[in-house]
Amino acid sequence: MTRRDRTQPGSLAEHAVTGVRYCGGCNPRYDRTALVGRLAERCPNVRFVRAESGREYDALLVVGGCCACCADISGLAGRRVVRLRRAEDLEEAAEILAAL
User: Fold this and answer.
1) Burial of 58: CB neighbours in 10 Å, binned 0-12, 13-18, 19+
2) The pLDDT of residue 19 is above 80
3) Is 59 within 8 Å of 78 (Cβ atoms)?
4) Which of 44, 83, 84, 99 is most buried, judging by how many CB atoms fall within 10 Å of its CB?
5) Domain range spanning residue 65?
6) Rounded CA gap, 82 and 96, in Å?
7) What is the largest CA-CA distance in the chain?
8) pTM recorded for the entire structure
9) Distance CA 19, CA 57 (A)
10) Is residue 73 one of the residues assigned to a domain?
11) pLDDT-wise least confident of 4-13, 56-65, 87-96
C-alpha cells in the first residue's frame, strides 16, 4: 500500500504502512517486541506490518537487539529506513514515523 492508495477518510488506508523486520535475537539487550509496541502507541498514524519481499513500504523498521542490527533486509523496500538498535532509539524513531 502506498500513500497514493489512501483514499478513504478514517480507514486504515489513511495510515502510513511500516514494514517491520526483526533480527534473529541472538544477543538482545532490550525487549524488542515491547519497544515496537511502545512505538506503535506513540505513532497512531502508522500501521505496522511484517515486512515482506516484493512490497514497498512508507517506512521499513529494522529492529536489532544490539548495536550490530544484523537483520537481513535484502529484498525489502521502504521510502525511509528506520533502525532500532537500543531502547534509547525510540524517540528518534517515533519522530521520523510520526512525520510520515
Assistant:
1) buried
2) yes
3) yes
4) 84
5) 13-98
6) 8
7) 42
8) 0.84
9) 6
10) yes
11) 4-13
What is the C-alpha R_g of the chain? Answer: 13
For 72-79, the CB contacts below 8 A with 24+ separation are 72/21, 73/21, 76/19, 76/21, 76/51, 76/52, 78/18, 78/19, 78/51
| Alpha carbon distance 43, 39 (integer Å) | 6
Total domains, the chain: 1
Give the per-residue pLDDT at 13.
55
- C-alpha span between 19 and 12 (Å, rounded): 15
44 falls within a domain: yes
Residue 33 in domain: yes
Residue 7 lies in a domain: no
Mean pLDDT of all residues belonging to the chain: 88
Q: Are 79 and 56 in contact (CB under 8 A)?
A: yes
Confidence of residue 54 (pLDDT cuts 50, 70, 90): very high
Burial classification of residue 63, based on how many CB atoms lie within 10 Å of its CB (0-12 exposed, 13-18 middle, 19 or more buried): buried
